[in-house]
Amino acid sequence: MDNKPKKKSELNATxxxxxxxxxxxxxxxxWILLSDQVIxxxxxxxxxxxxxxxxxxxxxxxxxxxxxxxxxHRQLDLYVNTIQTLKKAYIDLDEGHNKSVKLENKLFQIAYxxxxxxxxxxxxxxxxxxxxxxxxxKDALIGFIYFDIDEFxxxxxxxxxxxxxxxxxxxxxxxxxxxxxxxxxARMGGDEFVIAVFSLQSLDVFMTTIEAYLASIxxxxxxxxxxxxxxxxxxxxxxxxxxxxxxxxxxxxDAAMSMAKAKGKDQIVIFDDEMVLLIKQQTEILTQLRxxxxxxxxxxxxxxxxxxTHDDVIAVEALIRWNHPTKGFIPxxxxxxxxxxxxxxxxxxxxxxxxxxxxxxxxxxxxxxFRISINISAVMLMQxxxxxxxxxxxxxxxxxxxxxxxxxxxxxxIHDIQKxxxxxxxxxxxGFSIALDDFGTGYSSLTYLQKLxxxxxxxxxxxxxxxxxxxxxxxxxxxxxxxxxxxxxEVVAEGIETxxxxxxxxxxxxxxxxxxxxxxxxxxxxVLEYFKMLEQVKKEK
Length: 541
Prior knowledge:
Blueprint: H1 8-42, H2 46-112, H3 122-135, E1 142-149, H4 152-159, H5 161-178, E2 184-189, E3 192-198, H6 203-215, E4 220-223, E5 226-229, E6 232-239, H7 246-262, E7 267-270, H8 274-289, E8 298-307, E9 313-324, E10 328-330, H9 332-342, H10 345-359, E11 371-376, H11 378-381, H12 386-397, E12 404-409, H13 410-415, H14 417-430, E13 433-439, H15 445-449, E14 456-459, H16 461-465, H17 473-486, E15 490-493, H18 499-507, E16 512-513, E17 522-523, H19 524-540
Parallel strand pairs: 6-7, 9-11, 11-12, 12-13, 13-14, 14-15, 15-16
Antiparallel strand pairs: 1-3, 1-6, 2-3, 4-5, 8-9, 8-16, 8-17, 9-10
Helix pairs in contact: 1-2, 4-5, 8-9, 10-12
């Protein structure tokens, strides 16, 4: 026997049914008994009673039919309403499930994919690499390439974040076309990306593949109607040689990328153990750089710039030197790039500018055109507050800007030609002379030369040193000088080290020269001695 307790719904149905039956029985018996008694009060005629009984029966059937119609209709309404409520509940439940699935998918997308590019993010990348290592404990070979866009911060500052986002998405789209599964391209944030290559066959094939991937983004992009040549710096770490987990691979690839930046950017560097020591050294230098100005550790050296027509000094280039109290002389290449990355370049530029102005009076200046050249960092040039800061320095020290030439690198200019033109025009209003430094190392030198409001071009030492009569550059140099003179620009040849180079640049009518052949960079007192020596030579002639 089934002794299970009945459900509440079953009890309610039984109770309702019994109530209806009891109600019907009571009404029926009451009608039969009372109606007959009432009829007899009015008539006892058999024929009348028969007729009345027939009418009474019809009336009873009609009344009970109406009662049952009401009861059944009411129950059916309840049933239909219950069914409709259940259907709506099922629909709501289904919609709720769909919304839950969509929300779950959206949360997954947010958690594991980059919103701007649609690429996997760092969390997805970590899961993929960790999972691959776990599933291939003995034969896993992974190439981890961490890279970013060179000078992206300048583009963001000059053109705004919307243009920066457009560049990021464009780079991502170009690389997505190249990289196929199981390899993965992920965005780490900002302008930083990672390419993970699985199942490597050989290092040579791997590097060739990576170089092909990254070559697709090393090109000119049109950003807000301006042309920007985009390069990258990349660091490579390999599993298991350079790390046996995601975090170690990431850290070592980051170290290799930092090394690529330090070496001049626009290249790929593979991690090695010496980089860890180098990074520690750079961290120490950065810490010490913070107090170098306060402790008077910087000094200026000067290198003369000579006229090839009159054989006399027409200018000097001011070059910063760092004399560390314990490490001794630290070359500018080891700290200038660090200063640019970490915001110290402003303080260094201010110190150089003001110190050169302070020392200007000590030069035995006979020609009014004598100038001091000062290098302006590309990072400084592109900052919106560069001109306001410069104006402040000029007013604080009452500096005569006509006594100075500001040297701006060609690579800084071509990153944003319109911004550069605007800044240079403002500098010239102050009275500065402008020189385009490192000329001949960029990609569009001759194209942009006529657009820039400059006074001088300085042909880079690497270009001068590579020229012989058997090279094409031999004729390019002549073209450069003729073009510059046609545009009424003066020409300085840097890095002159041999008599042959002197004869070559003289034959091409180069205006000025500087280099070790004449004088290496020295403190002001020693350069002044060099001046006296030149004067003595002139007198003897």
